[in-house]
Amino acid sequence: MNNTKVFEYSFASIYRMYKEKAERKNRTAEEVDTVILWLTGYTAKQFKDKIEKKVDLQTFFAEAPVLNPNASKITGVICGYRIEDIEDPLMQKIRYMDKLVDELAKGKKMEKILRE
Question: What's the whole-model pTM score?
Answer without folding.
Answer: 0.92
